[in-house]
Amino acid sequence: MSGEDDYESDSDMSVDSRSVSGKTSVLLGYPDEPADESASALDTRIGGLPIWLNPSSPPSASLAKCKKCKSVMALLLQAYAALEDTLYERVIYVYACKKAGCRRHPGSVRAFRGLMRDEDKMRAVADKQKKDEERRKSNAAEAVEKRKQQQADLGNVLFGDGFSDGANPFGDPGASPEPSTSAGARLDEIEQVSESLERTTIGAAQRQDTSIQTPFESWPPAEELESYKSWFLYVEGEYLTNKSDQEVGQRVEILAVTSGGSGNDGPDEWSTLPESSSNVDKVFQNFADIVADNPEQVVRYERKGSPLFYSKTDEVGKLLINRNTGRYDSNLIPRCEVCGSVRVFELQLMPYAIQVLEQGSGIDIFNGMEWGTIIVGTCKNDCAPPTIDKNGVAYQEEWLGVQWEETK
């Protein structure tokens, strides 16, 4: 569900006020239909069991283990997120522990990025590079012949036919002429190098710091893994309407309906929120306002964009919102552990996902998930992990921040 643009507008909007209406640059994921056996690694889904980029190259199970209970967690999201003009497939996985005792603990929700070289694209690039090299050599040979002819013509003019062999009359008699590549040949060579890199360091994994590698851990049998019911997602662009005339209480009520956990009857934890805009946290008000336009969204995707904050006073809000400007600042996301680059916002899970994942599961409102949003930040360079295997597959953990529902 990639929609990456080249702009860098990750701090253009205040986190506590809507400044746009109409179509935005955000892609929204909505539940479509239950996922079945036709699902592949390149489908975007919530719930279910993971599908790896190559069945023979799973990641280490340690990437999906809860850091509190040490158990393998349940898959919340598998998002196909290939980037344009790259030579590899790309998937984001998000996991969360289902145990109530692990809730709100660091490492109880985690995300990692998977890459796999696209052999078809690589062959196409290799073929192009071969043709470019052949053209470069041909251009260079033509340039040498042209220079020889020019030198022969110059010798005839200055000294007559005695120097018609093309030797430089002012140079070393034993030296042979240097080949001169044309500007076009040099440009071809630059393009060849540029295209071989393709905006990623996936071909330079050996240069990565291998000190962060951890021992591989095998996965339990599939029947032993915790899981939610799986749903395919369909993706549409976000469209916002002007809600300036809508009461805050109405917007909050819509959000309460879409984040109702299992959907079972129970106390409405949102019912005590005041309806006066002066009494509602402005960041949460903005969150409720934007979600109300598309209440069944389960994923928001905007690589290099801005997350929609649930709060600015929790740990995630305090980490990512610049105190001086009051705006989101991607430079505040912890840097990539592999290449040292800054990370950028890529996607976030939204409250309606809780209702979809937990419906029919028998989980009551007291024991279900209780987050407001899950924000995932990924390496801006989309660097290659140091563990690319023989199948061209690698996985790397990325930064994830959970904005939990506020407790009374």
From TrEMBL:
Identification of the protein by name: Programmed cell death protein 2
Organism, as annotated: Lipomyces orientalis
Taxonomic path: Eukaryota, Fungi, Dikarya, Ascomycota, Saccharomycotina
